[in-house]
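Re-run with default settings, no changes from the original entry. Doing this only to confirm the output is reproducible before filing.
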Amino acid sequence: MKFNIAYPATGLQKTIQIDEEKQVSAFYDKRMGQEIEGDVLGDEYKGYVFKISGGNDKQGFPMKQGVLCNHRVRLLLKGGPCYRPRRSGERRRKSIRGCIISHDIAIVALVVVKKGEKDVAGLTDSTKPRRLGPKRASKIRKLFALTKEDDVRKYVIRRELPSKKEGKKARTRAPKIQRLITPVVLQRRKKLQSIKRTRAKRTKEQAAAYAKLISQRREDRLKKSRSSKTASRLSRSSAGKK
């Protein structure tokens, strides 16, 4: 059985192969999300604590959290892990593996929760730098411990691009900062707020004019009905006198 061990603090991963049944059997009947001591993998991992984050069986079907079985099942999925819908509302019946480890599992994904005393070569002894830095303004402030008065644009992490021709100066590229408050953004917000205010004022004026028109028409209708009733009463009285 293979074990893919990831250490988020350094951004490194390491895959090891263990064929001894005594070591592998310690993972049987364990569920995704459970923690296990690293001693079962060898003395090299003494003091480490791993969390089981997933795995695949020998045919490549992934394990799914929440499916409490150790065999393969077919479920109607509408999104989430193990299935990506191509259209909105699309559902599909997919074969997946339960979240309990059995002898059919070929590879198990582990995450280091607690580091031991000794470093593991290729996992904790070095760090892998991130290819891209943060893009959102608040995350850049958090990374460099900046205040709101500091200019975020001066702290953007730029990455170098390889030059296409030899001897040319290497180019750098920086991401477009998201959610950055600039004078243009404030001006646009003020404009939108003023548009909303004028629209609300115009709507109120139109509603008042409409209510006035309705009341005027009601009064005209009442006057017309009263005049018609008076005319009919007069005509009946004149006909009675004759």
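The chain is about 30% helix and 20% strand. The mean pLDDT is 89.
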